[in-house]
Write a structure and sequence with these properties.
globular, single chain, five-stranded antiparallel sheet, 4 helices, alpha+beta
Length: 109
């Protein structure tokens, strides 16, 4: 699933926030950015997702996290070697509803 085709509002917000945060090179990735998997934590406020396969351990020493000033909830990006790996979206009910089908849905591991 392409991010730009599925989470239009979030994709537009990211494309707007990244250049203003000095991350224009990441904004250029959006046309091909895919949602690979969702976060499998059990937190009801977390509609976060992976844009690259989840690592078996940590991302390693090249991990850089970018916190963005989101209009709804918290928005952070995990970036490794200039590639967006994970989009952490917290307390954003609209994205949670689309990804998981409702605020009270429990996810299976």
């Amino acid at each position: 699933m392409l991010l730009t085709e599925t989470l239009h509002t979030l994709a537009a917000e990211l494309e707007e926030l990244l250049p203003s945060n000095g991350s224009s090179e990441l904004a250029a990735q959006f046309s091909s950015l895919k949602i690979i998997d969702r976060c499998r934590c059990e937190d009801d406020f977390c509609p976060s997702f992976y844009t690259q396969p989840k690592p078996k351990g940590s991302y390693g020493p090249n991990l850089h996290t970018i916190a963005l000033d989101s209009c709804a909830g918290m928005l952070m990006l995990d970036v490794v070697n200039g590639k967006m790996m994970f989009v952490e979206v917290l307390n954003n009910a609209a994205n949670r509803k689309w990804l998981f089908g409702g605020a009270a849905v429990r996810r299976n591991r």
